[in-house]
# Entry
Amino acid sequence: MQHSKYSIPDPKHGYTTDDNARALIMALMLYGRYKKIKYLNLVFRYSSFLLNAQNQNGKFRNFMSYDRKWLEDEGSEDCLGRCIWALGYALAFEHTPQGIKHGLRYMLKKALPNVPEINSIRSKAYAIIGLTHIQSEKIKSMVCELSWSLIKQYEKYRNDDWKWFEDIIAYCNFVLPWSLIEAYKVSGEKRFLDTALESLNFLTGKVFMHGYFKPVGCKGWLLKGKEPAEFDEQTVEACEGVLAYLAAYDATGKDIYLDSAKKCHAWYEGVNSKGLSLIDGNTGGCYDGLTEKGVNLNMGAESIVSYVISRLKITEAKIHYGKQGSICLQG
# Structure
C-alpha cells in the first residue's frame, strides 16, 4: 500500500503504480540474490499490477483505491518514466523468468511511442535509465535523443555558480546526473559523462555540507541563490544517491563516489542530521524520513522499497569491489 499509519498499512490511501514499478526492481534484486520463491511471487505480483495499470495507448494509470478502482485516466509523466525504468531493468535482469519477460516486453513496446513526447526532465531521466538496459540501435538512438535534451536543459540554467538542470533543486535529484552516466556507458558520448559529473559534484556540495548526507528538504526545496530547506528529508533521495554515486564510481573508478554512496546509505542507519536510525529493529522496515521533530514513524511503500534497494546495492558493491568497497552494515 502507498502509505501507512505507523507500521500498519493504511487502506484509505490505496496503491500506486509508482510504488509497484520500484517494488518490481526490488523484488528482482531480492530474487536474484536469495533465489527464494517468495520473492519470485512478488515479481509476478508487481508485474501484474503494471500490466493492469497500462492503458491501450501505452501510458500508465497511477493511483488506485483500496477497492481496486483506478482514480485517474492517466498517470503522470514521472509514473511513465519509472515504469520504463522498471521494465528495462527487469528485461535485462538475468534471473527474470522468460515468461515474465515476454509480458514485460509487450508492455515496453506499447509504452515506447510515448517516450519522445515526455517533457518532464525527471521522467526523461527515468526513461533513459530503463532504456539503457535494452540492446537495440533504435533504443540507443532514443536514449541519446533524450540525453541531449537534458544537456540542452542543463545549459539553459548552468552558470559559474549554479550547475544544475533548472533553477530549483527539488525531488529525486540524483536521477538526473545518474541517467547521463548510464547514457554515457551505452553511447560513449563524453559530453554526457562530463555534464553528469559536473552536476553530480555540484549536488554533492549541497547535500554533504555537514560531512554526512543531508538531502534537500521537501518543505521548500533549494531555490537558486537561496539556502536549502532543512526538512523533511525523504528516503528516496538516499536510495537514488546510492545508485547515482555507484554509477559514477563504476564510470570513473574514483573512490570519492564510492565513499559518497556509503554515506548515503548510512543516512538510513543513523548517520544523519538527527543521529537517528530510520530502520525498525523489530521488522526491518524503514520509516518515512526525517522531520524537524525527528523520525517520521510512518512506513510508506516508497520508504521500504528505497531502503531495501539501497541496502542490496551497497551489499553488492561490497562484494564486487572487495576491500576497497568495504562497508559496515547494521544487522
In short: Strands lie at 4-5, 8-9, 15-16, 63-64, 168-169, 222-223, 290-291, 294-295. Residues 137-157 form the longest helix (21 residues). The chain is about 55% helix and 5% strand. Residues 125 and 175 are 6 Å apart (CA to CA).
